[in-house]
Records
---
Amino acid sequence: MIAVKCPHCHVGLKVDEQKIPEGIASFKCPKCKGEIPISVLEGKSKSSPASEDNTAILQPVRKGGGKLTVIGNADTPAQTFLLQEGLYIVGRKVSVSKANICIETGDKLMSRNHMRIEVKKNPHGGLVHSLSDNNSKNRTLYNGKYLDEGEVIVLKNNDEIVAGHTVLRFNE
C-alpha cells in the first residue's frame, strides 16, 4: 500500500499498487472523480514519495520468473535457463547428477549438485528467487563473496554467481 494525495480535492488515499492494471496512466479519485496520474518507474522504491506534480510513483511487481545465464568460456558454452516457481538444483551435467539444471561444462570444479535456487511467490503475487550453496566441495561465490554454510541470499537483477570456474548471471 502506498499513500497518495488527490491533486484535486486533496483527500488522502491508500492505494494497493498490486491492484492497478498494467499500462494505465491514471485512475479516478473515489471522492471527487478527478484523474490521478501514475507512473510506473523501474528501480524506484515503493516508499518513494509522490513527485511534485502529484503523480503516484509505483513499483511494478515481477510476475514472470527469472533467468540464469551461463557465460560462455573455453570449457563451457553459453546457456540460458528460465526459472519459474519451484526448487532447482544447479550443477555440472553428468549421468549421475540429481540436478534439474544441468550445465554442460568441462569445469571439474563445479559440483554435480553445486547450488540450490528456490523460486517462491511473495504475498503480492511476484516471485522471489533464493540462492544457497548445496554443500558443494568448492563453494559458491555470490557477487564476489563466498556463501556460508546454510546462508540463503535473495537474488537481484544482474547478480553474478560463480561455481568452480563457471560464471552465471541472474536476471529478472
---
Amino acid sequence: MTVDGVEVTPEAGETVLAAARRAGVRIPTLCHRDGLHPTGGCGVCTVEDTATGRLLSACATRAEAGMAILTQSAAAAELRRAALELLLGDHPADCEAPCQIACPSGLPVPELLERVAAGQWEEAAALAARHPYVCGGAAPCERACRRAPHGGAVAIAALHRWLAGEGGDAAACVRPPAPKFRSRLSGLTPEELLALSPERGGRQLACDAREVGREEAAYEARRCLQCGCRKPQACQLRMRCAEAGARQRAFPGGVRRTVRETGGGGFRFDSARCVLCGVCVRTAAGLGASVAPAFHGRGFDARVAPPLGRVWSDVAPQVLAACAAACPTGAMTLDKIV
C-alpha cells in the first residue's frame, strides 16, 4: 500500500493510522489514543483511499495491501473540516477569556481571580507582579468582561493594581502572538451566564479603588464567570481546527446546557467543552474502574457524566486524574489552584 505516495507493507491487524506512522506520515487525530479501542467517531482522521474512492477513518480501518491513501486530498480535507465544524456548533466556550485578551499586559485574569477567591494572596500577588499594571484608568479588561451587563464588570483593574502596584513598565509586557483559531462563548442566556458564577451579586468595588480589603477582593473574584479554558495551549480540538481552517459558526443552532462540576483531587468538568469523544470513558474502562464516566442520553441530549445516582466525587481520584490527562479539550482538567 501507499500513504501519500510512500510505500509501506501493512502488518497483520494494524490500522491505516499505524501504517501511516511507520511510513513517516502524520494523520491528525482527536478521539484516538494509543492503547484504547478505536472508535473512528470524530472524523478528524479521515483519509481517502484513491484505489476504491472511499473516505475512511484512519484510526479504525485495517490497513490492506493495494490501498492508495491520501491524507490531504480535497475530499478528505473537506470532510475533516466539516466534522470539526459540527463539533464547534455545540461548543459554547472561550479559548481565552475576553478580559485576558484585552489586558495590555497579558494578565491571565481567570487564574488571578481563582487565586484571590481561594485566599492565595501571596500567589496572586506574585502572578500580578509578573504582568505589570500598565493601563492606568482605562481598564480594557473590564470593558470586555462578559459580566458587565449583569451587575457590572468584575473589578479586575482594581484587584490587579492592588496586588501588583502601579507604575509598571509597558515595554516589559510581552504578549503572545494571536492564535490561528479562537473559540468564543455564545448561545447562552443571561440566566445561564450568571449560573456560571458562584456569586450572583453586583459589583462593589469602583474601578479607581485604591484601598481594597481581602473580603471584598474575594467577593469580586467570585463574581468571575471563568470564561477561559483551563488548558488553551494543549487543547487538541483547537489545534485541529487551526490546521483545518474550521469555523466555529459554520453550523449555528442551539447548544446544550452548560454544567460545571468538581470531583476529588482537584478534578473539574465543564460540559461546554466536551466533544463526546469518549476518551475518558475508554480510559476509565481500561483502568477497570467500576464507577467511571459514562455516556447518557442520545442525539442532542447526549452527555458524559458519572453513573446514574453518582457524582464526580464518587469516582476514584486516580481515575479522574487519568481521564483529565487523556481529555483532548478543556472539558476535564485538574485544578492547578492548589
